[in-house]
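hi! just following up on the protien thing from before. the input was this:
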Amino acid sequence: KYTCYPSYNEYLDYYLWFLNQHIPTIRQAQGGCKDWRQTFDELSLKIFQPKTEQILLTRCIREISENFSAEDVNLYLNKYLRICKDTILYNQIKEQYNLSADTDQLLLKDIHDRTTDLNRLLKKHKGKVLYVDFWASWCAPCREEMSPSAKLRRLYQGKDVVFVYLAYNDTESNWKKATEQEGLSGIENSFFITNSKNSKMLEKIKLELIPRYLIFDKRGSIVEMNAPRPGDKHSATTIEKYLKE
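and the predicted 3d structure came back as:
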């Protein structure tokens, strides 16, 4: 009966903080976070009233979903479902991170919620060089490169170069806000990755840290796995190299 009171929920937050003091910190792209997988496992061995247990494990699931791989998320979602019998959160997380999507695809949507995937994008722009920018709203170095990137776009305006912006490991609301701030809302090829956690393409290129830049040649093959940043003096000469092929 106490779970409806804000003060009790604050108490549970403090309890989690206390419990997490001995939990190791895992390094992530956005900084460090506690290993909420271990927190979940320890909590699941303790005895709580069902509603209290659900609140605590829900917090763990949300942290795991945000900071760990699709494999971990699926594993702990199934554990959560067995313990709490709560299909609402289970389905919500599955939908939020597109965990049921085809893992062979890199699924994308633009600011108007129109969907596509990387393969379709490559076919659409066959015969052109693609300069792909993996970024996120929370990534300061990524945001610092947006001004040089705009200059690079102006330099190649009207030429066979397509600049593609892919938001990785971000929240949709923050991405939309940052897209407006960085002047990308009017860019045709600015997308939010909807299956960041379970795309084999991202595993293939070993995308762990951003900003990261790729170049696809006119045939649609990756020719630069770590292309120069827009602000790098070699970025234009690298693009020119593949334009001439």
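The two ends are 70 Å apart (CA to CA).
The longest helix spans residues 50-67.
cheers
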